[in-house]
Structure to design on (1076 residues):
């Protein structure tokens, strides 16, 4: 039997496009409308046939797998719970409860994407807005160190450069688009202005722009750009009606990290004396923004939280996963809906292979982790419902389009919490 | 089954002023003595103690996007108050912006059992509800901001008031809100152009409507929909010198519709515009005394750290311009906006001293305690943990005089406070912290201990030091369960989220769908919050 | 040639697509196992497109095939993934964030 489900939300990236039509036939997805290639393959490649948990490579019943997972966590002195960005906020809430109970460190993939952005926010705050304000008001768009045409494919058409909105009836024609990056990208090719900068000069350029906005001319040179280019950009910043700077890991992963973003947030705050201006990080995974939100409301801190002393403590560089793994300070890991084995520097990833590891994810095939316990769960947004926070922190309730064949992350976490409380 | 026996009961809604009596509880409700099998009942011996209904907070920022931004922006606030996990409770952190579970514990330990979250934009109300579910031991509700809503302003512009009414009914139900909140009507929209509104007849850019029209339209709708709580109003020119006149003008405008004016201390300043604010408590209190349709909560300053947060984006920006430091702004499509800035209120700062005086004077000059409620607009004027201190200031004139003497000389000059001899009684405290707010919220089962009331109550040890007395109640009962015993939290249990869902003509949904296509970045179908996706909840009827 | 290159790692469409197929899938491995170098640098290294080079950083080394790309002189691009992460060091400078962009790399033809 075939049916079409409208207004489905795609959680592949932080855009959370909520206009997807999914056609299913006998409980299989056969057709996707309006999604980008990334979203399409997320839906079409979804395979829930791998439904039995594994312990040491052996298929077991769920009860046994839960006991094994609880046993690993209970025995550990310094367990790490990591991932969270591709699961629902309901599951994230349970993961924090587990971490609190265990006295574990809990860290999300923000640790290696926009934790420096949170650190900047802790320093100076942030002037921001929802994506609808971008669509309806923004006449100047700057993309700094990000490449949305690859990473957030429908961002341009739904929310930003190409969208038609209240004060921008002609869409792209009514907006000026500037890209700042160290290399030409798909996004820079469609910009009105491409400011190609040298690696590691973001901070200098941002502070020079701050000076220029305040009518002061820097007397030093910056490798790769000339002052006239910056003067032109500073004038644009001051003279638009509503400007927005989207920024990505070009700022957070380069030298300076949180300082780059602090400088950008300060520039944007100061521009509000002249006109209206907002900044927004291009959050990657579907619910990575939610991971920050949930951890913050449950502990007071967005990322890298240790409950080891019985109270929540934050520690950039201290309780962050890469530092803790590379420093061999972790003796068991519970990985939820992420893949640090491939996304962490070798020195950190290799420690994961040496310690007992539990991996919970909507895995289907090609699972290469060396996890001792593998918990294949339902995929929220496909065969389980759940809440997710868009890159602008607007929460959406994802629906399921297929029948659930595996338990959800939330359900498994509830069982594990029960089991460790018995230990 | 539970009996609280021999206590001195203060239950103003039922006119009980310190009478010795027993309270009987069964299945989470107050019941007549006959319904209790005393051989089975657990007895709390309250002889020599004071019994009041559980505290009801009419205006506090405890959950949702803005509060969480405050937590995220202020790791330093976490270090001010840290709570380790225990056998029965979760760990937590934060004094002015405590984490969710800790918020529930702290209110509970202070004898409060019902708290209203003062503002959520409907677009992000789902976030507020997720957090509310994680706040244990108290019941709660959330006010939905509508004073800068595009659909409503379009209806006013086009003279389609019936449409506006159906929309509002739909919206408050969709967001699972408890009441309608207005914040700086039109001013938040204008802020998106870098501007604000200063007067009731200023124009809202792009809509050609005025703050006056927004206020009266929503006032009428609130009345027509028979919502339990009247319009909850944060007016124009918050924090500005000379704003008392616009506040009184707004009270005059809204008197016929009924209106609750929140954190009125921030709205009651004299002085020339642009100069240092002065207390205009006399003027505002007179207006409150004269207008039968008006109630207020104070938003009393508590010296020490605060985190200012409102949907009033332009007010937060001008505060940031004045004090520097960290600042968050968040513009929300088609609906609202907001901002945050951390701030410490200092006793020796002349302005802060004046603000402190303004609040206390309002408490003491409003004749009818049923019209003025205790809040600190948590965490804007200080954390809710300051309530016991405010109670002492109201009940103990000697203490008040000593605290007054510690202010900056400039703040003390010409101050009215030293002349005000009034001391609140326990009965009056029970009104401004329980009966009054519950009645004004339209919560029939809260704020009193009559038969059928929710079994939420607090037992205090009498103490001359009223701050000590109200900081550490001996017993707190929530829904008939003992949650605090001998001053210690002994139980964590979920609270309910109360909401209203008035009827509307379903035809309106076609108009709303078209509006969504035009203005929003999410679809109509993904907007509404369904009660089955919330934690424990209770629909409050509109009649 | 002694010159150091600056390594940028990042997302690509194929890398994202490969993730859906699974991190052990040939699609994913292919999508994350090459290095982009600009034509001028390819010429000055004396190599040709498709040839394998050895990349060396203070954290480790990896051998990858060269793709010619429109990137600035002196820059290398490798899609984020296990190959790139052989070269990225664990130093986070107190932020939690390793140098996924900005590692200094020596390139030698094989
Ligand atoms: Zn408030």
């Amino acid at each position: 039997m075939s049916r079409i489900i409208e207004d489905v939300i795609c959680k592949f990236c932080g855009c959370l496009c909520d206009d997807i039509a999914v056609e299913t036939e006998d409980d299989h997805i056969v057709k996707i409308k309006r999604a980008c290639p990334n979203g399409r393959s997320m839906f079409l490649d979804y395979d829930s046939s791998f439904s039995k948990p594994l312990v040491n490579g052996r298929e077991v019943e769920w009860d046994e797998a839960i006991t094994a997972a609880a046993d690993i966590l209970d025995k550990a002195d310094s367990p790490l719970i990591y991932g969270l960005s591709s699961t629902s906020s309901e599951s994230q809430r349970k993961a924090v409860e587990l971490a609190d109970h265990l006295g574990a460190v809990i860290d999300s993939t923000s640790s290696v994407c926009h934790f420096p952005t949170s650190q900047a926010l802790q320093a100076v705050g942030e002037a921001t807005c929802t994506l609808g304000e971008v669509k309806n008001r923004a006449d100047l768009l700057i993309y700094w160190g990000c490449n949305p045409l690859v990473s957030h494919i429908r961002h341009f058409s739904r929310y930003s450069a190409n969208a038609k909105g209240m004060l921008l009836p002609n869409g792209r024609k009514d907006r000026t688009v500037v890209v700042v990056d160290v290399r030409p990208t798909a996004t820079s090719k469609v910009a009105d202005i491409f400011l190609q900068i040298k690696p590691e000069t973001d901070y200098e350029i941002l502070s020079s722009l701050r000076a220029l906005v305040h009518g002061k001319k820097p007397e030093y040179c910056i490798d790769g750009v000339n002052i006239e280019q910056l003067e032109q950009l500073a004038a644009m910043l001051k003279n638009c009606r509503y400007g927005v700077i989207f920024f990505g890991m070009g700022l957070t992963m380069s030298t300076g990290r949180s300082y780059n973003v602090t400088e950008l947030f300060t520039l944007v705050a100061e521009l509000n004396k002249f006109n209206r201006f907002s900044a927004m990080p291009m959050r990657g995974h579907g619910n990575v923004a939610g991971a920050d939100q949930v951890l913050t409301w449950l502990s007071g801190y967005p990322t890298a939280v240790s409950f080891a002393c019985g109270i929540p403590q934050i520690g950039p560089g201290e309780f962050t996963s890469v530092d803790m793994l590379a420093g061999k300070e972790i003796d068991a890991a519970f990985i939820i809906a992420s893949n640090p084995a491939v996304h962490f520097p070798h020195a950190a990833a290799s420690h994961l292979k040496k310690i007992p590891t539990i991996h919970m994810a909507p895995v289907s095939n090609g699972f290469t982790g060396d996890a001792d316990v593998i918990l294949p769960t339902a995929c929220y947004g496909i065969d389980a419902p759940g809440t997710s926070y868009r890159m602008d922190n607007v929460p959406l309730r994802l629906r399921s389009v297929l029948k659930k064949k595996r338990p959800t992350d939330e359900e498994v976490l509830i069982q594990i919490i029960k089991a460790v409380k018995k230990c | 089954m539970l009996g609280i026996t021999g206590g001195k009961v203060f239950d103003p809604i039922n006119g009980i002023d310190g009478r010795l009596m027993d309270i009987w509880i069964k299945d989470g409700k107050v019941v007549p003595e006959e319904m209790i099998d005393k051989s089975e009942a657990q007895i709390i011996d309250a002889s020599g103690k004071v019994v009041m209904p559980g505290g009801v907070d009419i205006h506090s920022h405890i959950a949702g996007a803005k509060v969480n931004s405050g937590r995220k922006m202020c790791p330093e606030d976490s270090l001010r108050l840290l709570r380790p996990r225990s056998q029965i409770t979760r760990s937590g952190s934060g004094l002015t912006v405590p984490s969710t579970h800790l918020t529930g514990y702290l209110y509970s330990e202070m004898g409060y059992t019902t708290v209203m979250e003062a503002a959520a934009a409907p677009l992000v109300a789902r976030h507020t509800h997720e957090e509310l579910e994680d706040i244990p031991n108290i019941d709660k509700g959330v006010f939905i901001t509508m004073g800068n809503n595009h659909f409503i302003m379009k209806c006013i512009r086009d003279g389609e008031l019936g449409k506006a009414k159906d929309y509002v009914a739909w919206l408050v139900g969709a967001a699972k809100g408890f009441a309608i909140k207005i914040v700086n009507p039109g001013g938040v929209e204008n802020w998106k152009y870098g501007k604000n509104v200063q007067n009731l007849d200023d124009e809202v850019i792009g809509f050609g409507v005025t703050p006056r029209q927004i206020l009266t339209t929503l006032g009428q709708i609130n009345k027509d929909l028979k919502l339990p709580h009247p319009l909850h109003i944060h007016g124009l020119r918050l924090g500005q010198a000379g704003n008392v006149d616009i506040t009184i003008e707004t009270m005059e405008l809204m008197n016929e519709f009924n209106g609750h004016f929140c954190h009125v201390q921030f709205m009651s300043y004299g002085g020339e515009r642009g100069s240092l604010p002065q207390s205009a408590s006399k003027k505002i209190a007179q207006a409150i005394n004269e207008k039968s349709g008006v109630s207020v909560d104070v938003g009393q300053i508590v010296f020490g750290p605060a985190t200012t947060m409102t949907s009033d984006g332009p007010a937060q920006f001008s505060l940031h311009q004045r004090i520097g430091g960290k600042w968050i702004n968040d513009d929300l499509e088609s609906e609202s906006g907001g901002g945050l800035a951390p701030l410490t209120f200092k006793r020796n700062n002349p302005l802060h001293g004046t603000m402190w005086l303004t609040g206390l004077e309002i408490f003491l000059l409003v004749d009818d305690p049923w019209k003025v409620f205790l809040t600190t607009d948590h965490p804007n004027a200080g954390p809710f943990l300051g309530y016991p201190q405010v109670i002492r200031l109201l009940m103990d004139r000697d203490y008040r005089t000593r605290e007054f003497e510690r202010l900056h000389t400039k703040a003390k000059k010409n101050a009215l406070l030293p002349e005000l001899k009034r001391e609140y009684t326990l009965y009056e405290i029970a009104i401004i912290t329980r009966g009054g707010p519950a009645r004004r919220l339209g919560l029939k089962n809260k704020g009193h201990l009559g038969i059928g009331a929710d079994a939420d109550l607090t037992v205090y040890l009498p103490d001359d030091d009223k701050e000590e007395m109200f900081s550490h109640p001996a017993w707190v009962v929530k829904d008939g369960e003992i949650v605090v015993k001998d001053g210690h939290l002994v139980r964590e249990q979920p609270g309910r989220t109360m909401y209203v869902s008035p009827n509307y003509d379903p035809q309106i949904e076609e108009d709303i769908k078209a509006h969504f296509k035009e203005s929003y970045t999410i679809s109509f179908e993904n907007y509404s919050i369904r009660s089955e996706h919330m934690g424990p909840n209770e629909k409050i009827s509109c009649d | 040639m002694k010159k150091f290159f600056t390594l940028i790692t990042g997302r690509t469409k194929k890398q994202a697509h490969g993730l859906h197929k699974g991190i052990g899938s040939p699609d994913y491995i292919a999508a994350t196992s090459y290095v982009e170098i600009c034509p001028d640098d390819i010429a000055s290294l004396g190599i040709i497109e498709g040839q394998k080079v050895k990349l060396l950083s203070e954290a480790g080394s990896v051998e990858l095939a060269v793709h010619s790309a429109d990137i600035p002189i002196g820059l290398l691009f490798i899609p984020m993934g296990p190959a790139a992460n052989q070269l990225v060091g664990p130093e986070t400078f107190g932020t939690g964030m390793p140098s996924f962009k900005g590692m200094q790399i020596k390139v030698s033809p094989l």
